[in-house]
Amino acid sequence: MSGNLNEFGITHLRHVDLAVPDYETQRTFYRDTWGLTEEGKDGDLSYFAAEGSPEQYVVRLRQADEKRLDLIAFGADSNDSVDKLAAKLGGEGVQLVGDPGELQTAGGGYGFRFFDLDGRTIEVSSDVATRQHRAVEEGEAIPVRISHAVMNSNDPNATRDWYTKYLGFQLSDSLWSQHMGEMMHFMRCNDWHHSLAIARGPHTSVHHVSFEMRGLDEYMRGTGRVMRAGIKKVWGPGRHLAGNNTFSYFIDPSGNTMEYTTELERLSTDEWHPSLHDIADPNVQDQWGTADPMSEIIARESFNDPDKGVFVAPPV
Question: Does domain 145-301 have CATH number 3.30.1660.10?
Fold first, then answer.
């Protein structure tokens, strides 16, 4: 897989950090309903880990007056890669939030933050301490790890090109519509089909965040548990064509879409050629045929509110 390694040393998606007004409701949701482990609480911050993942946390919640995406964090293979990437971005006119340094968040590490093309805060870090994790057991319907993050952009092609140019992400596949053009770009930084995807939306916002389950049975049990808890299911269960992964999408209490998935494709060849999939083909949306057909109503659910954090770095 040498050809698919990221040229700037970016290794994987670490965590997605969200600010929410309904903080206690969200804490309860992620812990009791979604199946994450609250590893720690620090004032207005809560850190949630996935039991199967060595990451200190995969979701950070912050109490705030307004809902926003605080940041998306990616891992890097070394402090040297962090320094080189910061120098490259700064030299090419990307707005840095700060210079590389010791991180003050759980697990420490060395990293820096910057704004992407749409104004999201992105963090790249190395040397973050790992946590004690374990193998998720058969029948245990809790997330193993964070899988991917999908973001809305009103110019997804420009955002795709930005991530390719500045962060070395590679395009895996795209979704296309006869009326709307290119609708979603799946981007990879390792051999998973996508760690990031860019969706066409009316404004910059979170489309969804996805969590990998142990297997099909655990994925279905988890889907059922969240449904029984009365959380609104948007779409699924089904299996996408691009990435070949299963999907069940839910709206969390603050209006962000969260996904359970499993069996996301891993690319086993350097000679991967991106496909353009027509979303009018029912198999592109759902190979199983168990989910409702994708509709404008379903699509609108993941437009989310315009993000209040665009080009504003989070306080922590």
Answer: no
Residues facing residue 153 across a β-bridge: 200
Angle of helix 79-91 relative to helix 156-167, nearest 10 degrees, comes to 130
Tokens for 82?
Answer: 């962090």
CATH tag, 2-126: 3.10.180.10
pLDDT at 2: 43
CA atoms of 37 and 10, how far apart (whole Å): 26
The segment(s) of the chain belonging to CATH 3.10.180.10 are: 2-126, 145-301
Q: Can you tell me the distance from the alpha carbon of 308 to that of 15, in angstroms, rounded to the nearest whole number?
A: 19
Distances in Å between the alpha carbon of 100 and those of 105, 184, 217, 278?
Answer: 14, 32, 43, 42
pLDDT greater than 50 at residue 1: no
Q: Is the pTM of this model over 0.90?
A: yes
Residues 249-301: tens digit of each pLDDT? 999 999 999 999 999 999 976 778 899 998 888 888 999 999 988 888 888 88
Sheet (strand 196-200) strand order: 233-239, 246-251, 257-261, 205-212, 145-153, 196-200, 181-188, 170-177, 275-278
Angle at 248 between CA 243 and CA 249, to 5 degrees: 105
Cα–chain-centroid distance for residue 40? 21
What DSSP element (H or E) covers 165? helix 156-167
CA distance 147 to 160: 19
